Amino acid sequence: MDQLNEQAWREQQVALNTHLADIAESRGLGAALQALADHQIESGFIRDRLAEVSRYVCHPKPGSRRYFSAQFNPARGRRFAGAGLHVPPEGAESVHGGCFLCARNIWWQQQGVEMGFRLPLVGGRYIAWMNPFPLAPTHCVVASDKHVPQCWGSDSVTLMKMIDDLLTMVDALPGWIGFYNGEGAGASILGHLHFHLLPRPPGYGPMPMELAARNDQEGSLIEDAYPVSFMHWRGQRASIRTRIACWLERWQAGLKDPGQTTANVIAIRDRESDGLDCYFVPRHKARSRAEGLEGVVGGFEVLGEIVCSSEADQKRLNSGEVDYAAIARILSQVSVAL
Ligand SMILES: [Zn+2]
Q: Mean pLDDT for each 10-residue chunk of the chain (338 residues)?
């Protein structure tokens, strides 16, 4: 692999991005991301690992609408090691310690098969890449085009800017779920700012967290109806943006230990709705895991679906040991009072 190959990869990127921008313009951003997924399956970057996934839905009692769920997804366990080459071939350069989300590494790590799409919103500052370890079909990781950290420190302006960017992306994606995982709240790459975007998976209805907030219109603290305390806002993007910014300022001013504070932020645009739902889940950096679950608790888990990837977890799922009460207990362990 040499510089000519990097040049060829860049030229292919330009051609693909022109094509995807046309699709986004005529059929919407979701169609463009789906076309990127199709391209990446064809190129061989995404292998059909979701065939190994099984889902378990647990109700507190028969006939109840409430539930928690678990997915057994063995490929997810390999994500901390990354995918592709770890040492650059001759002529290629590794930047930022071989960061998996820097475009200058991606071309050689994935030997030219991984392609991204620069999103035509938020000032073109983000590139969508398909997740090689997806939670569901068309799961993208949207990364900043600069190597900037995932955590916001204790700066509320930076945090609000991240939330703003997430809301803008999801607002353009009816039927999609987007989330941000902070340090110690499920993020596996701390050096490089990124979000997750995925269409609501086929066969999925409202997630348990959405059910817990379904009667809330205005923006409220939800704590008794769910094992994890969270804030919820619903409405048009501009309106919830203002309400979130006001709330965040007060919340951050009252924090006892801002250095240990982290969060999951989730935004969902229902296909039928013209507004957004935003969920803010405060977390503690030292509590990224829960007893009874080998993996970390991230945005998808706090929504109500735990993700298991080890054989031991699979045995517990198959034996019925991981039931509604067990998942509620797992989630309650990462809850932080608001
Ligand atoms: Zn990076």
A: 73 97 98 97 82 92 95 82 78 91 93 95 97 92 97 86 97 98 92 97 96 87 94 96 94 90 96 92 92 89 95 91 95 93
> What's the pLDDT score for residue 48?
64
What pLDDT is stored for residue 36 in this prediction? 98
**Segment (H or E) for 118:** strand 117-118
Q: How far is the CA of 166 from the centre of ligand 1 (A)?
A: 19
Q: Do 252 and 258 contact (CB within 8 A), yes or no? A: yes
d(CA 154, CA 168): 23
Task: Identify the structural domains of the chain with CATH numbers, from first to last.
Answer: 51-85+116-332 (3.30.428.70)
Cα(83) to centroid(ligand 1), Å: 15
pLDDT, tens digit (0-9, with 9 covering 90-100), for 42-58: 998 887 668 889 999 99
Ligand 1 centroid to 286 CA: how many Å? 24
User: Which residues touch 63 (CB under 8 Å, ≥6 apart)?
Assistant: none
- Please give the distance, rounded to the nearest whole angstrom, from the Cα atom of residue 80 to the centre of ligand 1: 15
Gap from CA of 155 to ligand 1 centroid (Å) = 21
Cα of 18 from ligand 1 centre, angstroms: 24
**How far, in Å, is the centroid of ligand 1 from the Cα of 26?**
31
Could you give the CA distance from residue 129 to residue 118 in angstroms, rounded to a whole number?
9
Q: Is 60 helix (H, G, I), strand (E, B) or coil?
A: coil
Residue type, 10: R
Q: Which two tokens stand for residue 205?
A: 């209805």
* Ligand 1 centre distance from Cα of residue 136 (Å): 24
Burial class, 299, CB count within 10 angstroms (exposed 0-12 / middle 13-18 / buried 19+)? buried
Taking each helix axis from N to C end, the angle separating 3-27 and 29-42, rounded to the nearest 10 degrees, works out to: 140
Give residue 128 CA to ligand 1 midpoint distance, Å: 13
Name 213's Cβ contacts closer than 8 Å, sequence gap at least 6: 220, 222, 225, 230, 232, 234, 277, 279
